[in-house]
Amino acid sequence: MPPYSSTPESIKNRKQQEKLLRPRMIKGRQSFIKFLPQDDLSGFHPVYLKHPDEFVPRRHRRGDMLEWGIVELDLSAKMSLLETIELRRKQDTWQAKCMYHGSLLPQVQFVNGLMERKKAKLAASRDPQRELCDYVLTIRLRDTETASCNSAIMWRRIKVSGATKINVFQDKILAPALGWTRNYHGYLFVDDSDGAQYGPNGGSYIDFLHFLKDCGHSYIDDHEYTIADILPLPNPKEPVFHYIYDLGDHWLHDIYVDAILPASESDGKVALLAGGGACPREDGQGFRNWNKFIKSLDAAKHAEIAGSMNYHDDPAVRRLGARWRFDPLAFDLAAARTRITDALASPASVPSGPKKSVMGGDPLRDGGPPGDSTPKGTHRTVIPNGAGFNPFGQYNNLKGSFRTEVVRDRRDKRASALCGCCGKPITKPKMCSACKIVYYCDQACQTAHWKEHKRKCGGRTASSARA
């Protein structure tokens, strides 16, 4: 049975295993982790035999603080990140002599202890006044494995309110600004000071199933915290956070805090200030291979990029077709701002039902891809894959190929809502009375946005959509 399955049989097996778990005596002290009786502790890395409160995070050889600062491998070994991940996977396989339920793995138990310690630290340092400030951030896509590298093919500078929830920032601001597809691949935010990780609660992204344990075993729910909660004082020279998009391809971005504006100078509105470089194609095998890929662009590679999830609907691709050419240095500021504007005026993504391409059958009739749930207040969209879109590598335009996603019908919860016009976190919300989905921070924003919103609004007349 899959370790994270919620079937009755899996739940029964998990409860039976919980009854067998017991702490062990290690050097005269009771262990923090509960082990199965048959386990040989000599196979575990010493870090997991400590108490999380005594753990000191360490940086990787290349200088990054990732994966909760747990460095299980020999730092003197000069291995690439992919080689490191493969070796860790082998270690995890033989370290756990018994077949643990996924959430009960000793490594997961240890990281859960680190998570509780981190949450207590965040609660103690929380300052509501910081949420009144605007943050100016620079995000750079890493193009080498060296930490603190200021050169980058793709970068964006964004102003955002400190009161913005992390998950909303990723979904409605960061991903559209960079050019990634909303709700398609998984992601993690990583604190460079201690390796603490934040991610989407209930996400069923396909890359999570295969790579989550290689990125730290578990993470904090990013819906619980705001930009102001997690980002430290300004440091434009060193990255304070990392943003990992697509845990399979591992697109690693560095986040710099350029400035924190005083509350008196902050308006809370989202602004994409500047940027450079085009976003790589989805499913492009990560930043380590991207430089090699774009150095020798030919007609086949241009077509491959044009057929990717984040480019096949681009107006220029549709207009030029086979004549379209990808420029890795190009950046369309107006188009990026439009993507953010469109995202702000739409409901938040549903991580439990991300975009997926499926072959055969009918996703509506069959209930969607395995593992996807359709919560109350949502519906599933099904779009046949059209000509030019290639979600299955060498197999193009397959009959019975669909794109499917779970989409929210209701408005976002007020605690995490942003103004559909300016992106300001909601304090005294107004909403479109026709569709009852889009929030506005004030009457001025609602009036300014009506010309754009009325084409998509569910209302029939302009008068009915006024609050």
From TrEMBL:
Stretches assigned to coiled coil: none
> Could you tell me one molecular function GO term of this UniProt entry?
zinc ion binding
Record-annotated MYND-type domain positions = 419-457
Q: Which UniProt keywords apply?
A: Metal-binding, Zinc, Zinc-finger
Does the UniProt entry include the keyword Transmembrane? no
Q: What superkingdom heads the lineage?
A: Eukaryota
Please list where the region (Disordered) is annotated.
346-389
Gene3D superfamilies the UniProt entry points to: 6.10.140.2220, MM3350-like
* Protein name listed in UniProt: MM3350-like domain-containing protein
Q: What is the lineage of its organism?
A: Eukaryota, Fungi, Dikarya, Basidiomycota, Agaricomycotina
